[in-house]
Amino acid sequence: MYPYEYKKIEQLSLTMELGDMDDINKHVQHRYKLIKNQLLNSQKQLADVVNILKLKNPSLIAQIKEAAMLADDKL
To answer: Do the Cβ atoms of 61 and 54 come closer than 8 Å?
Structure first.
């Protein structure tokens, strides 16, 4: 081995073609609907938790809202 031997670098090349725009749009719409449904489910769960807390401990909800408002002001 030589003292200044260089490493071999292999290059990977890839030829890509754009897919059918209808298929791409369908895939994007599907992913959007999936994420939107996940968001709606999370919002429903949060609303359920808030309603339970309102019944059990209304002062805690007030403290959480106040803390959230302070956190929004810092952003």
So the answer is: yes
pTM, two decimal places: 0.60
Residues 6+ apart with CB under 8 A from 53: 60, 61, 64
Q: Who has greater pLDDT, 61 or 41?
A: 41
DSSP 3-state helix, strand, coil percentages of the chain (rounded to 5)? 70, 0, 30
For residue 61, give every residue at least 6 positions away whose Cβ sits within 8 Å of its Cβ, in sequence order, or none: 50, 53, 54
CB 53 within 8 A of CB 61: yes
For residue 3, the 8-state DSSP code is T
